[in-house]
Design brief:
Immunoglobulin-like; elongated; 3 domains; six-stranded mixed beta sheet; mainly beta; about 375 residues; single chain
Length: about 375
């Protein structure tokens, strides 16, 4: 009987050893892919599979050095700076699925914020029998992440013209860069100034873009403020900045530079008697056009003590064109200046005209909102 017991134990041990030796545990990278050029930060994602045992962990390696182990339970957020200038690794809250039956299939995630350079990534899976499997290497290049900042390049919005926020980035400009922001202050969007969306794109090939604050109401009693605050993450499903349990990385992402906030002041009417006077007479306020239309913009201008030599036409902060005076006119004589805006794009637009006299003094007209409808 004792001999039979020893034989049974030996048989069980052999079965366990055979089960471990015949494991088909495997792990592959889902993100990033081999040869990718990426900007930091990066989500490392690998999937482990096995048909006979239970997978316990996945360990991620950069250039052969471990940067973190992810298990099947909740991994609390944390930040670790690893030696060798590999970068900063942040583990996100992540719960791996617990399958009810074999085969086992689990996805593992790690948040990695590396410095620019070339890296070789691998992942190693471990099951409850001590079996391990290592992924094929993934070679990636981390390119510099742009830094974004904002200044109030025109800090005063008044009847002389709109206030302008200029949002800039450094580094390469090969791609469009989506920049979210939010507006605050004592002035109300859509009431005290023309409606502004809460994001803008710096187009490919450009290092900056403008956000115009076009006043609609001028208060003589007080100056109102518009604050623009950049942020580089969004809450799941939308929302603004603040402490979050999950970060949605923008693509391509960017880092916040300094300053990341700026202020524009909406001031009361501050017209100067020695500056020219200009007013858009065509088109009318809230007039509608079809997309692709050629819109003729006409402005009447005069100067009290000299003559108007030039009128420029703008859509918000974008200059559309200009028209020079053909003759010299006496003071106080109103002169029409016209410009044709060809192939106007669909969307809401805010037209302004800026008159300059022969002494170099200039002034901007009141805003004229129009709409160009999509076909």
């Amino acid at each position: 009987m004792k001999h039979i017991g020893h034989s049974f134990i030996a048989l069980l041990a052999a079965i366990v050893v055979a089960r471990a030796q015949t494991s088909d545990l495997a792990i592959v990278f889902n993100n990033p892919t081999n040869g990718a050029a990426l900007q930091s930060p990066v989500y490392l994602n690998a999937t482990a599979t096995e048909s006979s045992n239970t997978i316990l962990t996945a360990e991620f390696f950069v250039n052969g050095q471990s940067i973190g182990v992810v298990g099947n339970n909740i991994s609390l957020p944390g930040t670790t700076i690893y030696p060798g200038s590999i970068g900063v690794v942040t583990t996100e809250i992540f719960i791996s699925a617990h399958p009810d039956s074999l085969p086992d299939n689990r996805s593992y995630l790690l948040f990695w914020r590396p410095q620019p350079g070339d890296y070789t990534l691998t992942a190693k899976a471990t099951d409850d029998r001590g079996n391990t499997a290592t992924s094929d290497p993934v070679n990636v290049t981390i390119i510099p992440t742009p830094t974004v900042s904002v200044v109030a390049s025109v800090p005063i919005a008044s009847t002389n013209g709109p206030g302008i926020f200029t949002i800039s980035r450094d580094g390469e400009t090969n791609h469009n860069l989506y920049i979210p922001f939010f507006l605050s202050g004592t002035a109300q969007d859509g009431a005290d100034y023309a409606d502004v969306t809460n994001s803008i794109i710096i187009p490919a090939g450009q290092s900056s873009t403008d956000v115009a604050i076009n006043p609609l109401v001028y208060s003589r009693e007080s100056t109102k403020t518009v604050n623009l605050q950049l942020f580089d993450y969004v809450l799941p499903g939308g929302g603004g900045p603040g402490p979050v349990s999950q970060i949605v990385v923008l693509d391509p992402p960017f880092l916040l530079g300094s300053p990341s906030t700026a202020t524009i002041y909406i001031k009361a009417n501050d017209r100067n008697a020695h500056k020219p006077v200009v007013r858009i007479t065509q088109p009318g306020r809230s007039q509608s056009f079809s997309a692709g239309s050629d819109i003729t913009i006409t402005a009447n201008a005069f100067d009290r003590d000299t003559d108007v030599s030039l009128v420029e036409f703008f859509d918000r902060a974008t200059k559309l064109g200009e028209t020079s005076a053909t003759t010299t006119t006496p003071p106080m004589q109103r002169v029409p200046f016209s410009f044709t805006w060809s192939n106007a794009p669909a969307g809401p637009h805010v037209l302004r005209a800026r008159a300059t006299d022969s002494q170099g003094k200039s002034q901007i007209s009141a805003a004229v909102p129009i709409r160009v409808s999509a076909p």
